[in-house]
UniProtKB/TrEMBL annotation:
GO terms for molecular function: UDP-glucuronate 4-epimerase activity. It holds the Pfam family Epimerase. It catalyses: UDP-alpha-D-glucuronate = UDP-alpha-D-galacturonate. It comes from Canna indica. The keyword Signal does not apply. Keywords: Isomerase, Membrane, NAD, Transmembrane, Transmembrane helix. This is UDP-glucuronate 4-epimerase.
Amino acid sequence: MDVDGAPSTPGKWKMDKPLHHHRHPRLLLHRWHLHSTLSKLAFWSLFALALFLAFFLLSPRPHASSASSGGRRSLGMAPWGGPAWEKRVRLSARVRRQPGGKSVLVTGAAGFVGMHVAAALKRRGDGVLGLDNFNGYYEPSLKRARQALLERAGVFVVEGDINDGPLLRKLFDVVPFTHIVHLAAQAGVRHALEDPASYVHSNVAGLVSVLEAAKSADPQPAVVWASSSSVYGLNSHVPFSEADRTDRPASLYAATKKAGEEIAHVYNHIYGLAITGLRFFTVYGPWGRPDMAYFFFTRDILRGKSISIFEGPDHATVARDFTYIDDIVKGCVAAVDHAGKSTGSGGKKRGPAPLRIYNLGNTSPVPVADLVSILEQLLKAKAVKKFVKMPRNGDVPFTHANITLAQKELGYHPKTGLQTGLKKFIRWYLDYYTSSLSKNGSRGRSMSS
Ligand SMILES: O=C(O)[C@H]1O[C@H](OP(=O)(O)OP(=O)(O)OC[C@H]2O[C@@H](n3ccc(=O)[nH]c3=O)[C@H](O)[C@@H]2O)[C@H](O)[C@@H](O)[C@@H]1O
């Protein structure tokens, strides 16, 4: 027998196929050749199909975070590399203000927090390079508008994915970054029910990819990255302090952020990377994320569409420690300045390096119903409200940050109350979407936060 199971001699074929015994032997020989050829063809076609499928199944998935996956060509991403591209990368990352100026890679730079942090670092004279995969989790046009704003400020946002190891290595070949501010992630608590894999892809695999690049770089950068208040999960000890339990996440999103904190421990322990995790508490403000409640409540109130306000058992209010973007940016910049130094080189640890976690919240939780009242007042429009029992979707009933540690070690002092912060958001929202509608190409002219 040969590989496709065809008999090795025509005679044998003839014996195995008595129905053909009356046919001429040459005809039988011809038929056998034909059969053998077809069988081989079928075998190799199947083999090629299997290879093709395996390639697609094993390739990194093209979605997630404001920056995540290999396959940049299949994503239609701009190709990277080449002298002109390297020159742009170098120029963007060049420190303008010495001494003490930093050269920072900001992942998720076309995201909400990423754009604000990249702009703030650039403003003070640091060299800043952005990285973002511009995925379609929400309005890509909003991400492009943020990118345009950063480009005008002198920040080049490389279109690429945090899971693209060769790209990250290339960036570190071109620029010896002193810091990475890693903000690329698959955000949103409730969306994890619909696309769980995207959370693992961006928040677990993507983080590992970034830390791999950081640990191999020489010199190693210090890393500051976004964890989340959601890691407190079912913790009921208020206000939430960094010492509280975080082993009872209520959503897959929270679980991936918690996993990130453990992964950070590993890279600090084995490779001497200085790593600071920041637990953000419901960040809001101009250029925000359309998947967040304050944002889509605004849109729906203006359209006269009903909004659902979640309630706990016995109509208990659901509350969040809403934190204004400018306060968060100050916390991130301070975390960069206090990040300490990684001690390793060439993938080897040379000594202990700092590993820290800080809450960045506002310390004054506000019920969601009150958030809606403020929006109504600012928009001068009545919301069509539906009070509904909080679905089992990963949301937790309340968050409340204890920020003592960040106050003490980072000098973090949030200043903006919800009323003031939402006023700035609404001003931006109306400006952005009005100029978007008028299509005069001038939207997002200024940073309104
Ligand atoms: O602080 C955090 O760690 C997290 O903050 C937000 O998550 P969340 O606080 O759930 O923010 P929203 O999705 O804007 O929800 C705000 C509040 O509105 C409530 N809500 C949401 C949606 C809705 O239709 N109705 C409603 O009452 C939620 O239960 C929640 O209490 C972000 O979406 C996460 O990416 C981030 O990590």
